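This part of the workshop introduces the protein records we will be handling. As an example, a complete record with its sequence and its structure tokens follows.
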Amino acid sequence: MLFSTCDLVTGPGLGLVPVTGVDVDADIDVDVDVDVDTKGFDGQSNIKALEDILKLSSYLMIEAGRSFAIAEVEHRYLTPTVKLLMAQRHQISNWVPGAVQALVMRPPSFFTLAEYEALGTRNIYTLEKVRTQIQHHRLCVAFHSPNIIHEERLCLQKDACGDAWEASWWG
């Protein structure tokens, strides 16, 4: 579909943004029948509409539309899986750490088959690798007490301080 120079893209919080002769190709899947009102978006059913606004705004380089959609989506509860996938799809890098942390903290047996399929092999591999590295680090810390740092003014007997540290570490 081709927008003419007089068409305007509007939306709550977006204002009027003129669109000049942009050819939107078939890769962008926008539902035209989505009901957008001036009161904003309510409920989970409109996540798809917000994602469509995000996709279209990114494609047309409309930063105000992109910022609006991201801000609106951030106010809703998204599962960590959905948040990670949306972050990857739409290059929202500040969502990745929180989503990865939440997914790594979940035991693998708590994932549904649909989540495994949605995340895909590369993401599952990365999550398992991070989980394994964290477990390895925990074991290293548990088996090898960290080096003690002696405070010159507080630690007058370094050997006794070191012994107390080892005793407290190993119980």
